[in-house]
Hints:
By secondary structure, chain A is α+β, with helices and mostly antiparallel strands.
Amino acid sequence: MPSTPLLDQLEDGPWPSFVTGLKRLATSEDKPYADMMKSLLGQLEHSYQTRTGYWKGGTVGVFGYGAGVIPRFSEVADKYPESKEFHTLRIQPPAGMHYRTETLRKLCDVWEEHGSGLIAFHGQSGDIMFQGTSTEQVQPAFDAFNEMGFDLGGAGAGIRTSMSCVGSARCEQSCYDEQRALRTIINGTLDDMHRPSLPYKFKFKFSGCANDCVNAIHRSDMAIIGTWRDDIKIDQEGIKAYLAQHGRQWMIDQVVTLCPTNAVSLKDDDTLTVDNHSCVRCMHCINVLTKALSPGDERGASILVGGKRTLKIGDLMGIMVVPFMRLESDEDFAALLDLATRMVDFFAENALDHERIGEMIERIGLVNFLEGLGLEIDPNMIAHPRTNSYVRTDGWEAEAEKWTQRKGPQAAE
Amino acid sequence: MPSTPLLDQLEDGPWPSFVTGLKRLATSEDKPYADMMKSLLGQLEHSYQTRTGYWKGGTVGVFGYGAGVIPRFSEVADKYPESKEFHTLRIQPPAGMHYRTETLRKLCDVWEEHGSGLIAFHGQSGDIMFQGTSTEQVQPAFDAFNEMGFDLGGAGAGIRTSMSCVGSARCEQSCYDEQRALRTIINGTLDDMHRPSLPYKFKFKFSGCANDCVNAIHRSDMAIIGTWRDDIKIDQEGIKAYLAQHGRQWMIDQVVTLCPTNAVSLKDDDTLTVDNHSCVRCMHCINVLTKALSPGDERGASILVGGKRTLKIGDLMGIMVVPFMRLESDEDFAALLDLATRMVDFFAENALDHERIGEMIERIGLVNFLEGLGLEIDPNMIAHPRTNSYVRTDGWEAEAEKWTQRKGPQAAE
Amino acid sequence: MSQPRQPIESGVPDPFPEMHPVMVKNYGQWAWHDRPRPGVLRHVAKSGDTIHTVKAGTQRQMDVYTVRTLCDIADTYADGHVRFTARSNIEFMVADPAKVDPLIGALAEAGFPVGGTGNSVSMISHTQGWLHCDIPGTDASGVVKALMDELHQEFLHERMPNKVKITTSCCQINCGGQGDIAINVQHTKPPRINHELVSNMCERPAVVARCPVAAIRPALVNGKPTLEVDEKKCVCCGACYPPCPPMQINDPVHTKLAIWVGGKHSSTRSRPMFHKLVAAGLPNNPPRWPEAAEVVKTILYAYQADARPWERMGEWVERIGWPRFFEKTGLPFTKYHIDTWRGARASLNTSAQVRF
Amino acid sequence: MSQPRQPIESGVPDPFPEMHPVMVKNYGQWAWHDRPRPGVLRHVAKSGDTIHTVKAGTQRQMDVYTVRTLCDIADTYADGHVRFTARSNIEFMVADPAKVDPLIGALAEAGFPVGGTGNSVSMISHTQGWLHCDIPGTDASGVVKALMDELHQEFLHERMPNKVKITTSCCQINCGGQGDIAINVQHTKPPRINHELVSNMCERPAVVARCPVAAIRPALVNGKPTLEVDEKKCVCCGACYPPCPPMQINDPVHTKLAIWVGGKHSSTRSRPMFHKLVAAGLPNNPPRWPEAAEVVKTILYAYQADARPWERMGEWVERIGWPRFFEKTGLPFTKYHIDTWRGARASLNTSAQVRF
Ligand code: SRM
Ligand code: SRM
Ligand code: SRM
Ligand code: SRM
Ligand code: SF4
Ligand code: SF4
Ligand code: SF4
Ligand code: SF4
Ligand code: SF4
Ligand code: SF4
Ligand code: SF4
Ligand code: SF4
């Protein structure tokens, strides 16, 4: 065992220690990975000492696929030779990250045989990351996972592994079937994941409501976020129960005054009402009064496009491009996949190299993007209309007419 | 008299009609301007008919000054020859736009003698605009006004005529002597008004409080807006009187819930308190409860820089660059003038041609501007800190030290 | 001509000799104010002194007869002092409360509407237009007069949720500034270039630099140096026209009016705001611009009906949301409403918050 | 080697066979939930079925022994099903409420903290760092472990005003994302270029294109084509390093940590927000990064002491204002806090609103 004085300090303290785990693997003398993990601990300690990383990339993959393995070769292999290759397999988990223990144990067994014994549940994008194996073992490891029913995840300039919140499996806020939506889109675009040839990466994320438990707005190129069109459902008996338990002041301070649009009122007769036209479906009142309030019945999702981290123009959040799409019937899910596919195609055709879809929209303008995809203009797409007069408006009447055509019948509703 | 069927329609209706006024002048047959005004009415009717303007600029001025007259030559002088020249004199009013009737009558007399008899009280920048005279009469008109104690205002690429709110003259919200501040700055920078040689125009505006009755934030290059540093003054008897008159609900709806930072509380004993550290000096509560609340005693102004209209990069509002400067003593006013002068100098040296100071700041960055002027960094200058990591921070410690130096003693206060 | 006279560089006149004596005496020492009725303010000083202000609308562009009439009224009822507001309303200050009603009577008699205080619609900010400017797309005096006729009752009464400050401008330069409602020129076609004139009178590098979208480039027409406009880029702003009159942007048909909503200068409650485009393509229709007036009234009365006390126009829309603004006013929402200028991203909805 | 095996392109596995049977049965039919104690959720379905979720922290980067221990616990106390959260916590679902306490006991016994629900500090989002990435400026596993040791009690208890979601990242690319508090790498010197390597391995046009400020240009060194960096322009972001490893941005001394505050993903109450820089220049100090931990705790406890119920970190600061944030945390405010990136204007105070 290498001496690891700095890492040893990370075995103290109440939080589970990854160092203890690494040492356990390194000292599993009967296992094929023990030496690799000793070497790895040595290199990691060296990084702690020198404050420097020592991995470099390369090209390693599995037969038939163009991505999904993150290759790592050591730059200090002379000192720590057994971990000179330390590749990671990204494997897509069951949607919602549910596991039988039996499945987990089998995954462990495969990784003991073909890898380091080190597994991350999960990567920030949602993969199970099987971390650390040699070039030689990549294919057999994948084959074993694949036979179990698992498939490689995304890497490189393609569709990435996705994530949905726990949603319908347990959460009463859920406004659509997240797992189905995830599997519909990802399994419908697998080719672009496994043989990546897009301008840059493309991520989908699925949250069942505006609480956005998978950070979809900031961290995905296309965010599917649950919402509803009709009225919030109110169980006035439930409201009375809350009032009985917590009092009116509590109700006012925790709910009424925190509604961002002042849409909630507590009446003198202790009923609670919501002005559903003002409500922005932010979820706050429902979160607090979960036993009395719930999303309406006409459920579905909003679609936002273009979230991402900093490179190269600065962080972007997704932009609302479809305020509502119903997600109930088979046709609805087919329409969702169709939209996703068209989105990816439009991205493939119009983005520059290494440009995310959010950057592309920034460059070509939202209106061109919407027109390119045939999405209808809606004031829900904006925080406010333009403040600048530099625009050529000679098509005003034709555009206004489009709106009137669309809204005419609705107005009569 | 020309026939003016379109203009005639503007004599109907309850609002005072400028057309009736123009006609009055045109029919003052005993006056030197009657023919000019007949001609003018003809040209204006022609504009109404053709929806086209017919004035062009030129060069006309008074001896010794480089600006202050707006020259107008008619493009349809062949049809309307008597108003072929129709220049405007911009004259600076007394600060706050106060007049004795005697003064107004004298101004009218001068303009009957040397001009059209048409006067605008006032231009959007704050000038009295004596509208319409011939090239020949410009100098005598100016001489007469000048002898009365009036001086030309600004035009072109220089300091412009300024405006202050009525403020101390009448308004209880006033936090500094607006008229004095205006006269200190403008009369201290007159050379740059009368002999304009700046990169572009530069406007000062003076509002006594955050109600900003002269639109200073949007419409001036340097806005001086009254504020206070200590606590809002509360007269609890006054509060009780309001409560007696309007009730608690009114107080809550009109004041408490409208405070943008929730700094106002109505206590059970019917006293009203303000969390002065949270208060942003927005004036709302004071506006509503003017008989009970007033700005604190430590009064002065905030300075914002860079407001302007659309050309060429889009509308800009002023940016807070001095959160507080006391404005009481002679030294305080001298410091204000000093700041204004340095601001104009910095602008003169660093702006591009036809670039307003707000555009310059946009181009060089606020930090460079602050450093150039030696203004101290303050979190009141921002809505929030940077969200983007693209910045070189190797001077962090030195900068942090500056803050600690400045705030150290204060923290002990 | 003899030796020219040297100007006396006296600058801004001292206001104290002009100011009402009660104001001079209590300068900076005021205690509170209220509004006994629309058009009248009562300010009380710490000394106990009181001054009443009676506010009346004017046409701004006044003939000397009108000014003298106002002076006569001031002399008879208002101690011989007046002031003008930032919006060209006139204020009469009276020390004696008994004079207030007669003063109001005299103003009404002379045709000056008394109002514009408190939660009323004040005078529209006024610019030059065809009367005097060299680049106007419409008139200002006419638009203001026509609109104020329509809004007259709202000037007289204080029945809006908060003050309503309307602005107008006669070209896209917008000397009238931001407004709760703004009625502005919006050109819809690129400038037609009078090539003959360009070669003669235009300082070409200056105008090329002035274009916000770099749509102007040098060109040769009939062998003479002139300019051309890339019509795909041009945003029809007219910024090239003042420095280069041959860039003829104004057009009797294609110069339209647009309505903007929600500008706010005060830092009161909410931060200051810019106004936002809500309607465009309105005809530039003198002498009474009925189409623009109609839209303005629709918006104004939707605001009046729906806003809460103290909500300025922009604050109201922020609360109810833009989807409902378009619903309530019945105005169409188009792609032109979506901002395309720098920083446009900040105007997009980057949240899951949505309204139905 | 024989003929290679063709992959079965099965994609995302069906979760239903893996899911707890009570979840399968009541899928999409849940009625409400509460939290009987920190670390435990109780969800009740419309059918009346109930499921308890016990949530525990893990180190994310787990050895198979740890995974098996968790499986053993799940088999004994939790019906043989688990799930992992978006933040690498593990959740045990149990149909029988009587099993909750024994399950908690077993987890505690095995060293897994039970908590992370409701208004607690959840697990820090975790990235790769020195353990695996090819570009890290610091470690991730170590930072997370060190910080979670410090914040352990806040994971166990629900005593914050709202959820606190902390993130970290091991380079400025920031795979860890936005956070209520984010502990991120901030380089402070431009990359040193290994010219020898550039000529050999770098795809030069790609790296030139990658620089956000166009600071990289082709150059010749010793007659060989290489690159140079304009150090005046360079913002030390390290974006050139992944496509071009010779652009050595990482440095044991000049690679620092910075703390950001107020990121928010949810659209709950307020719109989503980006986090904002509050402290920089902190040493990258393994194995326990005490300086960064100190700043994080200072901020966290200022928030705890001052925020109102349901206020997320960013919402709290919005209410009290940035001047008071710096006052309450004692952190210095510097010119680096003032944004300089595109759209920076929207981050400036363009109002007369001011705090003292
Ligand atoms: C493994 C993982 C971190 C983790 O430990 O969890 C990761 C690791 C890397 N990310 Fe990431 N990113 C991971 C999730 C993210 C996320 C979060 C998310 O997906 O929700 C983001 C922010 C969201 C986004 O997509 O913008 C993210 C934004 C980036 C970026 C910046 C992209 C941008 O447009 O700003 C890069 C750089 C690039 O793509 O050139 C990047 C690049 C990388 C690379 C490939 C570094 C490189 O260029 O060589 C890292 C490989 C590390 C390794 O050795 O495995 N990674 N990366 C995450 C993927 C695991 C998984 O598949 O589940
Ligand atoms: C007269 C006046 C309108 C009025 O009727 O009240 C006016 C009239 C003109 N303005 Fe203005 N501006 C007038 C107040 C304003 C204001 C309002 C203010 O000062 O508060 C603004 C917006 C604030 C600002 O400064 O940005 C304003 C923004 C402009 C601009 C755009 C400047 C910009 O940077 O965006 C121009 C164009 C220019 O300067 O090139 C302009 C240019 C002009 C010119 C000189 C047109 C031109 O380039 O030939 C107009 C001369 C008209 C004439 O025939 O007299 N005027 N102009 C106002 C000055 C009267 C006075 O001295 O009191
Ligand atoms: C006379 C005048 C100042 C001057 O020096 O000329 C003035 C006078 C008063 N303003 Fe003002 N404001 C005047 C233009 C403005 C403007 C600018 C403008 O009209 O273009 C604004 C900014 C408008 C904006 O935000 O776009 C303005 C925003 C306010 C506010 C803040 C309103 C708000 O809630 O946003 C107050 C506070 C209030 O209403 O109590 C205020 C309050 C006042 C007070 C109460 C101050 C006082 O005690 O004298 C005055 C009487 C108000 C009334 O009528 O009820 N004044 N006030 C201006 C009259 C213009 C007019 O004839 O209509
Ligand atoms: C398990 C998990 C979803 C999953 O599929 O894995 C989850 C589960 C729940 N979230 Fe979440 N959230 C989860 C990540 C998130 C995230 C993303 C993250 O952690 O990176 C967010 C966005 C955070 C942000 O804005 O930056 C998130 C924002 C919320 C909110 C909104 C909070 C707010 O006021 O802004 C709620 C509503 C609430 O608190 O009642 C919520 C509510 C809930 C509920 C009540 C939903 C439910 O009934 O199951 C769950 C239990 C909450 C509790 O512990 O009290 N969840 N939740 C994730 C647990 C992560 C963890 O281990 O800590
Ligand atoms: S995003 Fe909404 S539906 Fe999904 S788990 Fe979170 S609270 Fe539930
Ligand atoms: S969901 Fe949000 S916006 Fe709608 S009523 Fe509830 S708190 Fe208000
Ligand atoms: S800006 Fe303030 S001080 Fe000046 S008149 Fe208006 S309310 Fe009074
Ligand atoms: S001045 Fe404005 S911020 Fe201050 S307490 Fe009054 S309402 Fe609140
Ligand atoms: S708005 Fe345009 S047309 Fe009107 S006065 Fe100003 S510059 Fe002239
Ligand atoms: S109208 Fe505006 S955009 Fe068009 S050429 Fe002229 S300056 Fe450029
Ligand atoms: S944050 Fe940077 S160093 Fe860390 S995993 Fe992501 S790319 Fe690698
Ligand atoms: S560190 Fe960033 S700014 Fe500097 S050269 Fe590299 S990519 Fe450009």
